[in-house]
Amino acid sequence: MEPTDVKISRKKPVFPVSPALQKYLKSYQREAKLPITYDDLLMFNESYPIMDKNGKDTLWEGPIYPSDHLEELHNGLKVIYANLKASGNLRIVQHKYIDKIEYCTFGNTHPFRIRIVNRLNDVYDYFYVKRADASRIYGLELEEILSPNQVNYLVDRETLIEEHIAGIPGDVFSKTYLYNPEYNQTRIAKEFVKFNERCLIMLLGDMRAYNFVVQITPDFDDIQFKIRAIDFDQQFYEGNVKVYLPQFFKENFPFVKLCMEELTDKTFLQYQQEEKSSILHRVRSERHRLADLRDVSNADVLTTTENINMLKAGMAAHFADENYLECKTMTDIIELNVKNIIRQVKL
Known about the structure:
Elements: H1 19-27, H2 38-41, E1 46-51, E2 57-64, H3 67-86, E3 96-104, E4 112-118, E5 124-131, H4 134-146, E6 153-156, E7 159-163, E8 168-169, H5 170-176, H6 185-202, E9 212-218, E10 223-229, H7 253-262, H8 265-285, H9 287-298, H10 305-319, H11 330-346
Antiparallel strand pairs: 1-2, 2-3, 3-4, 4-5, 5-7, 6-7, 8-9, 9-10
Helix pairs in contact: 4-9, 6-7, 6-8, 8-11
């Protein structure tokens, strides 16, 4: 599992939400009518760079809004938070205020990060306002359906609201916590293998260390770990199969090295099989929703014909399975991944 220099298109277009996808979102309670849009948050006069504690530019900016517009923005953002967290029940924001609005100039969706604080105890939370991108929404849906993680988001036309996913960023974890003597390194390696397998099956790309977090949960006899994706911008767009395998990014080499140190070929295959079995269980329980998502995404244009042809050839070579060459869309490739899991687990 040696890392390589994987090339990714930083200019991936933002794909609009089609009427069919909007209908799907409404059916599964992801649609909401919101008082503030992404474009409303873009109406700032100027901004200042936000530095970290070491004085390094974070690539986030602090927007400065006209004073007569700020109260309306803050009230609207509190309503959005209530919609995201409590189906619109405004009682949960009765004692909360908007502490910060931050804007990121890096990445495809240029998100706003909102910090909301409870004035009674200073406990805070974050959520994100982004420009709605259909491929990103498909990534969030596949994460909800096929992964062990739940994602919370809302869409209102061109605006996407996402819940903050708590955890230690993968790059920070690899530098600071990976070899903590109190941690069972085999458990961490196991989770990276499962994460690697899941990303390929779901065609979730660009899972560099800063695009996922590690969640740490103390258990009664040990400490549990979970690796979660936090960025879904590169959902089934690229044509290079290595983009969908976190093991090939140089930023993830500390995790790859740990796997080589802690796992044998036998345990590596065992953990891959465990993840496939878990995905199969989720496919069976969510088969109707997955079929609806397949039908909608298959009708959308979400990448180029060149990327589809490149990826299906790469998948055919990776799995030694020429059936991939018959796929016509990225959705077809994911569907074949799932069908192959069903066949393998039944054997």
